[in-house]
């Protein structure tokens, strides 16, 4: 999972892993990796920090990694101020190597944000 800082990647990771959100998360200054079990399939989900000082590590763990089977890009749908930055960072990540055949999910997190139709047109 990639996305700007504060969009809810870590909360989503722990919600997917245990069924409940971890309420005491700190900003991720590296990465968190958890094994997720879903319908007898086990996979590793990487939550990679989104702070501007560490986004350079995305290229090592994102689409350029041979171990990447799919990418989840999380946006904060309530943060319209940083929507352009979120789109630019995704474009930079995809632009470096292209998606190839990798599936990409843009996850609009947080309920009180932009309407889905508007987000769809941005991404």
Q: Care to describe what's here?
A:
The protein has helices at 9-18, 58-61, 83-97, 116-122; strands at residues 31-38, 41-48, 71-76, 104-109. The chain is of the alpha+beta class and 123 residues long. The protein has a single domain (9-122), classed as 3-Layer(aba) Sandwich (Rossmann fold). Strand 1 (31-38) and strand 2 (41-48) form a beta hairpin. The radius of gyration is 14 Å and the shape is globular. It starts with 8 loop residues before the first helix and ends with a helix. The mean pLDDT is 84.
Residue ranges: pLDDT <50 for 5 or more in a row?
A: none
Characterize the overall form: globular
Q: How do the helices and strands follow one another from N- to C-terminus?
A: HEEHEHEH
Question: What's the pLDDT, averaged over the residues?
Answer: 84
- Distance N terminus to C terminus? 16 Å
**Architecture, CATH level 2?**
3-Layer(aba) Sandwich
Helix content: 25-40%
Tell me the major beta sheet. Answer: 2 strands, antiparallel
CATH homology superfamily name: P-loop containing nucleotide triphosphate hydrolases
> How big is the Rg?
14 Å
Give the amount of beta strand, in percent: 15-25%
CATH fold descriptor? Rossmann fold
Total beta-strand segments: 4
Number of domains: 1
Protein name: ARF1 protein
Keywords: GTP-binding, Magnesium, Metal-binding, Nucleotide-binding
GO molecular function: GTP binding; GTPase activity; metal ion binding
InterPro entries: P-loop_NTPase, Small_GTPase_ARF, Small_GTPase_ARF/SAR
